[in-house]
Amino acid sequence: MAEGKLPVARPDLTVRPPTEPNGGPGTTTIDDRVGESIGKKASLSIEGVLRRRGSLGLITGGEYPKVSVDMSRPHPDVKVDVAVRWPTQVTALCQEVRALVHTELARLTGVSPHRVDVTIADVVVGEQSSQRRVR
Q1: Angstrom distance (rounded) from CA 25 to CA 17
Q2: Is beta strand 63-64 parallel, antiparallel or unpaired with respect to 66-69?
Q3: CA 67 – CA 78 distance, rounded (Å)
Q4: What is the arithmetic mean of pLDDT over 44-55?
């Protein structure tokens, strides 16, 4: 090809998408841990939600927020357990967590949850917000 000239498209080299009998376009799989991580990060961004390890946390894995979701379903149910600071308007906080987890999961994965259930699993007196930086 001479310098400065553009290549000419050749009709015999067209690219065609695969047809279904030959395998189709493929699948996308999102691991449950991805949905759980998104739910945790979204929950912790709400003022009043705490990152907390329960008293039996080392034994039972009781760390909050705890999120469970089955990302293999087209519209999964999401369960979020959170620890909150006292005093907190728990109804308003749960609504904020529910809305943000739903929005972020749909925005980042394209999977819109059927429902997001929020449980206040622990109320903590005198602890700072999850947004506080450790020095």
Answers
A1: 8
A2: unpaired
A3: 7
A4: 89
